[in-house]
Amino acid sequence: VKRACCDFLNSQLDPSNCLGIRDFAETHNCLDLMQAAELFSQKHFAEVVQQEEFMLLSQSEVEKLIKCDEIQ
């Protein structure tokens, strides 16, 4: 059941929800989903920063995200 839920959330990744899905995945120890959400947020960074979820990040979370070499 957990795998099916993670697969479903992975298929729903979007600039408006990828940060929340990443947090959810981390909380529930869904490492593949967490990595997929992180990669998605890096590839779609310009769109992600325009979303409400980005504005809700803490300073340390923003710093971690922008320090990534994979940001596009």
TrEMBL record:
InterPro entries to which the protein is assigned, alphabetical: BACK
What taxonomic ancestry is recorded? Eukaryota, Metazoa, Chordata, Craniata, Vertebrata
Q: Which UniProt keywords apply?
A: Kelch repeat, Repeat
Q: What is this protein called?
A: BACK domain-containing protein
BACK domain location is 18-71
